[in-house]
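Notes to self, NitT/TauT family transport system substrate-binding protein:
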Amino acid sequence: MYKKILFIILSVFILFGLISCSNEEKQKTNLNTLQPLVIGVMPDVDSIPFVIAKHNGYFEQEGINVKIEQFKSAIDRDTALQTGNIDGVISDMLSVVFLNDNGFNVKITSKTDGSYKLIASKDSDISELVDVAGKSVGISSNTIIEYLTDRIMKDSNIDIDVPKKVAIPKIPTRLEMLENGKIDMATLPEPLASVAIAKGGKVLSSSDKLEINPGVMLFTKDTIKSKPEEIKALYRAYNKAVEYLEKENLDNYVDILIEEAGFPEIIKETLVLPDYVKATMPSEEEFTQVLDWLKSKDLTSSDYSFDKLCDKAFIEK
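result:
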């Protein structure tokens, strides 16, 4: 009887050992079979879950190697995408339309959580939106920045041509010109918007106030076709990072953002984070508003349907 019990116990241990080895081999197989992904990001809060996922090893846990490329302007980012140097980017609905108009097939795979503010220089005499007539505003032309600037004006019943738009594509340069009084206003993403505020800038309005969020994650057609499992793994890691951000105090990871995302040191005192949510699709209503804006400026004549430019396969359970 004793020998029989001992045999059963040993059999159970062997079985668990085999299962453990199987799981380890499966993880090794995933690491060996999943192809690397390269994603492009800008210096804004949309990128933070990806930065955390990289630093905390969530990508590795999902068996994927993800390289994060930092860009200072949307033009540089989109050029890298079109030349095949990156697989996907944190971008916006405007870029999705432009890229497809130019015959470069990309699809929205999720929304991102960003925040933008229109800020007046500390040296300007602007205290509210009614004061913007004839004043200069730094933007990035035909991008989410100009779109949001126009939406802010429209919401306050101000003609979009009342302020003088100054094209400054690189975000750090736009911030510097605002701080030095070279422009009266600028539309900036977080965290640089909060940096401007900390140095005396005055908030006139924001995307949060208007509940506007056209920010998205997109991937090329080729990547979607050739790396579907890699994109799914990326989003599983992204969701882990969102869970981390929901429970962790900023003090526990702010140095990571400075060292690995290139955020300025001052964010320790100024950073305001959005309420991150796990990967989900953007709203069709927002896309319709973006498309209407593009048509009003003769930037597109296309009548894309929302579903045509989206691929929901990577985040739906």
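- Strands lie at 37-41, 66-70, 88-92, 106-111, 116-120, 136-139, 164-167, 185-189, 202-206, 215-220.
- The radius of gyration is 23 Å.
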